[in-house]
Amino acid sequence: MHKFLLVFAFAAGLVGIASAKEFALPDEDAYASVTIPDSWKPEAYENGVEAVSKDGEVYLSIESTGGDTLDKSIEEAMAYLKKQGVTVDDEKSETSEGKLNGMAVVRTNWSGKDKDGPCRVTLSIVAVAQGKGLLVLYWASPKGDEDEGNTKTLDAIANSIKPL
Question: What is the CA 95 to chain-centroid distance, rounded?
């Protein structure tokens, strides 16, 4: 009986970890989706979703954007960071290109500071289809950025991004 309870408790824990919600982006005429675990308390907003890691050390937002709205979306993301007291060091930025689930990605990483000290910021643009993309904003403390649990969750979130 004791083994059964241990197995049941373990399985129940896995269900809690695996509990997640899929978000279609944008709200209307969705062309992409992303799945975020409930433990990160994801909240939808107009054409996007934001979430914070369980430990409160990582902020993530993903929103739809397109060719004619990309510059505005980037400006809004940077204004949001500024409003939150985050500054980035443009001189120490690194930009790279790659693929995510077969989609082209351009990623810019910065070292920065927020009210609690040093932080890391990443802004990625995922090309989902011609003229349709996702803007992914990541902001984390060094502790949150290096946490293995956060890294695994972020990898799972990234791997869940797909075109519809």
Answer: 17
Beta bridge partners of 58: 140
Q: How far apart are CA 66 and CA 56, in angstroms?
A: 30
Q: Which tens digit of pLDDT belongs to each residue from 133-147?
A: 999 999 999 999 999
- Ordered by start, the domain boundaries in the chain are 20-163
- Spans in the chain with pLDDT lower than 70: 1-18
Q: Is 160 exposed, middle or buried (0-12, 13-18, 19+ CB in 10 A)?
A: middle
Q: What is the pLDDT of residue 146?
A: 95
Hey, what's the torsion of the CAs at 72, 92, 99, 138, to 10 degrees?
-60
Half-sphere exposure at residue 84, Cβ-oriented, CA atoms within 13 angstroms: 18
Distance in angstroms (rounded) separating the CA atoms of residues 82 and 123:
14
Predicted TM-score of the model (pTM): 0.84
State the fold for domain 20-163.
Protein Transport Mog1p; Chain A (3.40.1000)
Burial of 70 (0-12, 13-18, 19+ CB in 10 A): middle
Which helix (H) or strand (E) segment holds residue 50: the answer is: strand 48-52
